[in-house]
Specification:
Length: 620
């Protein structure tokens, strides 16, 4: 295949993955110059020199052009076609193995190389290719065996010592790895990268002092070797010396490479951990001055502005990226999220609709469209979007929750119940689905089925505090299973000891058991945690009334009514307790006058969201 060999040299696979611990980007080990031919003995040379058939040559050329254009799948098919006409071609076998490796098909590449090795048993290049493929599959021991074979025939091969040492480090044979890399350095101490590899083994071993020592040796060969500077910065990070690390990374950006993504990434991560968001933004904005079209920097800036609650700036950055890469769904999704956060639902909707045009089966986009339509009170649009999400991924709970939430808001409990029952048929072991179905049963006064669903929730998740509390409170409220009710609520409080709703439930259970003083104590605690919850004040009023502390009871009822003027049950209780009409009470009269006036001029606004204690939103 002499003509093909003249046309193109064999390109062996880079060792970019072969860093011992890869604390930053991988580094390519320099390839040997003699890679133009896989050959090592007369026999393999004779095989290489023979003229390929026209059919093989034609298919090779097609494959080569596909490879140049980055279409590895097509290149692989064409090279395999060529092998049908020239099955013992060393060159074609090496190309097939190389492409398979680039595509991540390492086991296929190893199989191909094992066909090639017998044809060129003394080929150093072929052995290196095979060792690298074993390395990429994680079979480091096999890779070491191959490097030993190379070193038996070529004891002065620097690259074999280096790569063998890196492989030894991968199986935690650190001392042997260090010894092997040192042998390579002894043969060639002019390459700064070799000291970096030795430093990486120390780094992986946790010996940051010796790691840094070798990175500095690398800099003695080449003072501007960026990788060594980066590694030194990382040793300081590992040791917790953030000031020293910051100095290193800033020095890289100011004196060595203002475009260094690694230095920028380390700095912004450091600043983020320390809550120095503005410093992180400054680093990225400065980097953007050098390369205003760097989409990665623009995207990171958008995320930082979002974290800093500067949503409009974040949106502005993302809009630039979307304009530059309109087909990239990831960026449109982030833009949609931010537009939702700023409640710009119309623009957010356009982004999700654009995503669906690009990816018609994008479930996440349909979920967000459903949520947005709920916010815009477009129920038909919400139902259509959420049903489409369910159709695409029926075993995903999010759409069921949103759909159930919508029906719950409309007080259409039967439809809400249908949604959750359907969801449970598909996803039987999701505790939240059972919990929410239990809540719906409670709303339609189906106590027995509510109990079944709450128990099922607890069976699936014994630490489900809401279910434990809900069931305990429900028992107490009915005056049944009081001891079990107290036990359930106490279990919930072990999970969330400062949950005001749980403490209120415990107080109510104590009240139902006749433990009045204990009940008052718990309800006062609950009020401290939930000062704006009318139910807790009502409960305390009930207990005071039970103790015949009527003035105290009235005060608590008034506080509860101030927060919920439309509570018809409490209004009737207020009257039945002899406190008169709350509309005429001097503490409530003005509030009721304003409330009744607003009712006349404003239609009732539907509840915007369901209380999280009852139907929690179930995010991705």
């Amino acid at each position: 295949m002499n003509s093909i060999i003249i046309f193109l040299a064999v390109i062996s696979i880079s060792l970019s993955a072969l860093t011992a611990c890869a604390p930053t980007k991988s580094v390519v080990i320099p390839e040997p110059a003699e890679t133009s031919l896989i050959a090592g003995d007369t026999q393999s040379q004779d095989k290489a020199d023979r003229i390929a058939s026209p059919e093989a040559y034609s298919r090779f050329l097609d494959g080569f052009m596909s490879e140049l254009s980055g279409n590895f799948k097509e290149a692989l098919e064409r090279y395999k076609d060529a092998l049908l006409y020239d099955e013992d071609s060393l060159f074609l076998l090496s190309r097939v193995a190389s492409i398979q490796s680039k595509m991540g098909k390492y086991n296929d590449a190893i199989e191909t190389m094992n066909k090639l090795i017998p044809l060129a048993p003394n080929s150093e290049t072929a052995l290196f290719l095979l060792a690298e493929m074993y390395y990429n599959t994680g079979d480091f021991s096999k890779a070491i065996e191959i490097y030993n074979r190379i070193l038996e025939k070529h004891p002065d091969n620097v690259r074999a010592y280096i790569t063998k040492g890196i492989s030894l480090a991968k199986i935690k044979e650190y001392e042997k790895g260090i010894e092997s890399v040192r042998k390579g350095i002894k043969l060639d101490n002019e390459k700064p990268i070799n000291f970096v590899y030795l430093g990486d083994i120390y780094f992986d071993k946790g010996d940051f002092k010796n790691a840094r020592k070798n990175y500095k040796k690398s800099l003695s060969v080449n003072p501007e070797f960026e990788i060594a500077h980066l590694r030194i910065g990382q040793t300081y990070l590992k040791e917790g010396d953030f000031d020293a690390a910051e100095k290193i990374f800033k020095n890289i950006l100011s004196k060595i490479n203002p475009f260094s993504h690694d230095a920028i990434s380390h700095l912004i991560q450091m600043y983020a951990k320390k809550g120095r968001t503005s410093d992180a933004i400054d680093v990225l904005e400065k980097a953007l001055e050098y390369n205003p079209r760097d989409l990665d920097i623009i995207f990171k800036l958008a995320l930082l502005y979002r974290d800093d609650k500067k949503y409009l700036k974040a949106i502005e950055k993302l809009q630039k990226i979307v304009a530059s890469k309109p087909q990239d769904v990831k960026y449109r999704e982030y833009l949609g999220f931010l537009l939702e956060e700023t409640k710009d639902y119309d623009k957010a909707q356009k982004e999700y609709e654009a995503i669906i045009e690009i990816e018609p089966d994008n479930v996440q986009a349909y979920l967000h469209l459903g949520f947005i339509n709920l916010r815009k009170e477009n129920k038909d649009g919400a139902i259509n979007a959420l049903n489409k999400a369910i159709e695409l991924e029926p075993d995903r709970p999010n759409a069921y929750f949103l759909l159930g939430m919508m029906y719950y808001q409309d007080k259409d409990y039967n439809k809400a119940k249908e949604v959750f029952i359907k969801a449970i048929q598909v996803i039987p072991n999701d505790p939240e689905l059972h919990f929410n179905l239990g809540v719906i049963y409670d709303k339609v006064q189906d106590f027995d089925n509510m109990v079944v669903e709450m128990k099922k929730t607890i069976e699936i998740d014994s630490y489900h505090g809401n279910a434990l509390n809900y069931l305990g409170y429900s028992y107490a409220d009915k005056g049944i299973n009081i001891d079990e009710a107290i036990s359930l609520i106490e279990r919930a409080l072990k999970i969330k000891p400062d949950n005001g709703a749980y403490i209120d439930s415990l107080g109510w259970a104590y009240y139902k058991k006749g433990m009045i003083d204990e009940a008052i104590e718990q309800l006062k605690k609950a009020i401290e945690l939930l000062p704006n919850d009318p139910t807790v004040f009502e409960h305390l009023g009930d207990i005071y009334l039970k103790k015949n502390m009527k003035e105290d009871a009235k005060k608590e009822y008034i506080k509860a009514l101030e927060m919920d003027l439309s509570n018809e049950k409490l209004i009737e209780k207020f009257k039945d307790s002899g406190f008169g009409d709350p509309n005429e009470d001097e503490n409530l009269k003005k509030k009721y006058e304003e409330y009744n006036k607003n009712k006349l001029i404003m239609p009732e606004v539907p509840q915007e969201i369901i209380p999280s204690e009852e139907i929690p939103f179930y995010p991705e």
